[in-house]
Amino acid sequence: MASLRPIRRRRRLFYACLAVLLFLLATEAGLRLARVTVRSGEAIYTDRWLRHPVGRGRVDWDEYLTLGVKIYPPDPAEYRIPGPVPPKPAGTIRLVCLGDSSTYGLGVNADETFAVRLEKRIAACSPEQRVEVWNFGRPGYTSYQGRLLLAEIAGRLRPDGAVFFFGANDACPAPIRADRDWAAVPRWSLFLHRALYRSSYSYRLIRNVNVDYLGRQLGAVFGDAEPTAVRVRVSEEDFWANREAVRRMLPPEHGFLATVSAVYRSDAGARPGPYFLKWRPGASDVDLAGLFGAALAADENPFLDDVHPNVLGHRLIADALWDRLAAAKIIRCRQPEFVQPQTGF
Questions:
Q1: Closest CA to 91 of 124, 132, 120
Q2: Where would I find the H helices in 168-210?
Q3: Disulfide engineering: 106 pairs with which of 29, 101, 121, 193, CB 3.0-4.6 Å?
C-alpha cells in the first residue's frame, strides 16, 4: 500500500491542475462571450481594488502602461518628420524636439506644430542660415523614452540643440512597472507577458488587480510607518536626470537645451505640472504656465483641452523658442536696413 501513495499524490496533483486549467478555460470563454475586458486606456485608479475600469466592448488598453516601454524607430510613419534622417549637411544647425503628444501636435495639423512654425520663422528671418527642426514628439512618451530615443538617433542626427517638453506622462501612475523597471524584465518574461496580455481576457483581469493599493491598505492596518507609495512612470528625480542625460548628448561647446514646462488648464488659469512646481527656468527655458496664463488673462485660449496646446498655443511656444535661440545667438536674424524717413523740409 505504501508504494501506491506516490501514485495517488501524483494523481491528485494532476486532477487539481486539470481542474484549475478547466476553470481558467471556462472563465476565458465566458469573458470572451460577454466581451468583458479591462479598459486601461480610459482611466487609472490608485485608490481602488482594480487599476482600470472593467466593461464590455472592444479591447482598449494603454500600450506603455500595460505592455512596457517601447521606442519607435525614427520613421515618418511614427513621428511627424519629413523622412528618414539624412546625413547632416555641412554648416547646418539641427534642433531636435523631444516630447509627448503636445510636441507631436495632437489635434493640430503638422504644419501648425511649434516645430514647423519655428523652422519656417527662422528660414524667413535668416534665409542664408540653414536650420532644421526635427519633431520627434510622440503621444504617450515620457522623458525616459525621449532620452532613449535621442541616444538612438543622436549619432546620425547630430543635433546642435534640443527642446525638452515632457512631464504630463512622467507623473502618470504606473500600474505594473515604472518606465525604467521594464528594462530589467527578462526577454522571455516580457514576451510571455505581452503575448498573454494581448490575447487573454483572464490574464488582463488578473493583472488589473491593484496590489499596490492592497499593500497600502495592509500597511495602514498594521501601522506600517512607510506605506507603499503610488508608483509613477518616471519619478521627479529621474525626470530631471533624464533632462541632464539629454544635455550631455548635445555638443558641449555650444549645445542648446530649452526645457518647456508641462502645463494644465484649471479654473484659476494655467498651472504648472507637478514636476515644475519648484522649477526655476533658465535663460533658454520656456515657462509655459506663465506664457499660457498671460494669454488666458488676455482672453486668448492657447489650450486644445486641459493639457494640449491648440494652434495659438503652438504659435506662442514657437515664438518663445525663437526668442531664446536668438538670445543665445544660435540663429542670426537679418535686420532690414534703416531708411531715414523724408520730411517735407
A1: 132
A2: 187-199, 201-207
A3: 101
**Which segments within 173-255 are labelled E, that is strand?**
none
C-alpha cell at 176: 505594473
- Let me know: does 182 contact 277? Beta carbons within 8 Å: no
In the DSSP assignment, the letter for residue 224 is -
C-alpha cell of residue 279: 522649477
Q: Cβ contacts of residue 221 below 8 Å, gap of 6+?
A: none
Of 108, 110, 168, the closest CA to residue 134 belongs to 110
Q: Would you list the DSSP string of 3-43?
A: GGHHHHHHHHHHHHHHHHHHHHHHHHHHHHHHTEEEBTTT-
- Which domains does the chain possess? 93-172+233-327 (3.40.50.1110)
List CB contacts of 111: < 8 A, sequence separation 6 or more: none
- Overall pTM > 0.90: no
CB 39, CB 60: distance < 8 Å: yes
pLDDT tens, position by position, 216-237: 777 766 666 555 678 899 999 9
